Give the backbone structure.
Amino acid sequence: MSGVTDLPFRQLAFRFGAGLVVTEMVASRELVFNAAESWSRLKGAGLTPHMVQLAGREARWLAQAAVIAEANGADIIDINMGCPAKKVIGGYAGSALMREPDHALSLIEATVKAVKIPVTVKMRLGWDETSINAPEIAARAEAAGVQLITVHGRTRMQFYEGRADWDAIAAVRAAIRIPLIANGDVETVEDAHEILRRSGADAVMVGRSCQGRPWHAGVLAGHPGPQADAIPDLVIDHYQMMLEHYGADVGIRHARKHLGWYLDRHAPELAAQAKAAIMTSKDAGFVADALRRALNDPQAKARQEAA
């Protein structure tokens, strides 16, 4: 999730038991040309295994970016063929590659040949309901040397609307022998068991359900989450980690969406004016104090304990 699963977020997810965390999407050409943002997204900070997701349209940039990632500590390269964002598909990358399987395979082949570490692919079911080609692409990717496939159970044109089709992922399972990860609308432990049963996948990937609770992947995997009275300190710790990672000015801006998710999930009764003050303040000390008050409110603590 670009703009969400940055290094501080992944560090928290890993701390609470996520089995594998993946970087934000790194634009391959920008990495080759030393863009600062791409290098920031590449950082692993000791998380093992370090899985780097690359996006791109041209084989030469993907291959060169994979070499750079490997040289800088990547243990796994993941090729993004699933992002539905207009900015990404406008550059004919992400899920747009599913409209051109032959071209997509040329990117996969170049990346696999360029590095010694495993290469994986993340995709959707297809571009739209008339072109469900994930099984075909997955089988060809396996033949090209890809070692794991992740499938989100929607087409690109569905974006995030409706429900992910867990049953449709089973066709990919039937087409490949390598490990398969299923993704889409997994919120609960029961969801995780059900998507595994219906898709035949080997593992589950979660994304949006971790917004406002970066520990949730670990909880789904059977690890304990934080106690309710620990959540205020954890949220403030996350906030401070972001300020350290990005620098104060940029970190405050990047943190706002996370603070909104935390407050929506753990303090939904907070008055709109108080929430707006937290979300718009440039004073890190004020934000930390206000978060602590909001999340320590008796109603918020009761909601956290119920969750």
Q: What stands out?
A: Residues 229 and 299 are 12 Å apart (CA to CA). The longest helix spans residues 248-266. Residues 7-220 form a domain with the TIM Barrel fold (CATH 3.20.20.70). The longest strand covers residues 76-81.
